[in-house]
C-alpha cells in the first residue's frame, strides 16, 4: 500500500535537507577526522568499563546512575543539581534547544563552525543566520549582537570547531549583556583550552554552556553530554523537554567513574596538548600553513590541490576532515593522535608535498 500524501511530502523534504556527512573510515589505518581521544589510557578505560558493568544492572532504568552523575557534576562545579541537564551526547542537547527555542525562529551562529547548529535548525523549520568570523578568526562582536537581538538562540562554539581558537571571555560576556536571546556556548573542547565561561551562569540567565564526555574523557562511543545553565532554563529542559532516560546506565556510570578518577583525564589532556604543539611545529617545518589550536585538532591550509591531497592521504590509510573553503582558502582539520599516528601523518604529508 502506498504512503499517504502527507508522509510522502515529509520524506521528500527530509531527502532535501542537509545533514552531517561522515567519511568512510572502515579501511583506514589512521582515523584522524572525528577528534576522538586516542591518547587516554585504553587499558585503564577498559578496566573502568569492566567495573562499571559489574556495578550496574542493565535490566533496570538508570534512575540511580542519573542522580549519581548529577551529584558529581554539582560537586565539580559548585552548583546545585537543577543547573544541569544530561543528554545522549552534546548533539542531542543542541537538537532539544533548537526544537524548543529555534523551531520556525531565527537561530544565529558564527561561520565557519560546527555545522550541526545549521543542519538541525533547518530540520526544525528555523531560519539559520551565519555571522562570518573576522579573517583572524576572531568574533564579529557587533554582527552577533545585531543579529542576536532578533533571535531566540545564538550558538558560539568556543574553542571553535574547526578553527581551534578560544574566544576572549570579555567578548562573550559583552554579547551576553547586550542580547536577550539564549547564548549557547559550546565548550566541547574546553578541557584542552584555558578557561570556561560556566561561572557566568550565576550572573546571566540567558547563558547555556554545553559540555561533553566525548573528547577529553574519551567516551565518544557512549554518547553522553550535559548542559549547565540557570535553573530557570536547565530544569524544564531536564524534566520536560528531555526524554525520561536519555542516557544509558553504562554511559552514566563510566562518566561518574572518570570524574572520580580525574587524574586519568588530566594526564590525557596534558599529553594531547604536548602532541598538539609538536604536530603543529612539524607542520610548520614542512611549510604547511597550520593554525595554533586550543583543542585536540589542528586546522591547516591545503598544501596542494585539495581533492588530490585528501585522496593521497586516503590511499595511505589516513582520513582527515575536509573543512572546505573560507576566506579564499581550502582547509583541512586533523585530529591530534598518538605520537605514532602523528608521525605517520607527517611522513605521508611530506611525501605528498614533494610530488
Write the layout of secondary structure elements.
Layout: H1 5-16, E1 30-32, H2 42-55, H3 63-77, E2 84-87, H4 90-102, E3 106-111, H5 116-123, E4 127-132, H6 141-148, E5 153-157, H7 169-178, E6 182-186, E7 207-212, E8 225-229, H8 231-241, H9 249-260, H10 262-285, E9 297-301, H11 306-315, E10 318-326, E11 329-335, H12 339-353
Parallel strand pairs: 1-10, 3-4, 3-5, 5-6, 6-7
Antiparallel strand pairs: 2-8, 7-8, 9-11, 10-11
And the CATH topology of the largest domain? Aspartate Aminotransferase, domain 2
Can you write the helix and strand succession as a string?
HEHHEHEHEHEHEEEHHHEHEEH
Uncertain spans, ≥5 residues at pLDDT below 50? none
Q: State the fourth-level CATH superfamily of the largest domain.
A: Type I PLP-dependent aspartate aminotransferase-like (Major domain)
End-to-end gap: 58 Å
Q: Which CATH top level class of the largest domain fits?
A: Alpha Beta
Molecular shape: globular
Strand content: 15-25%
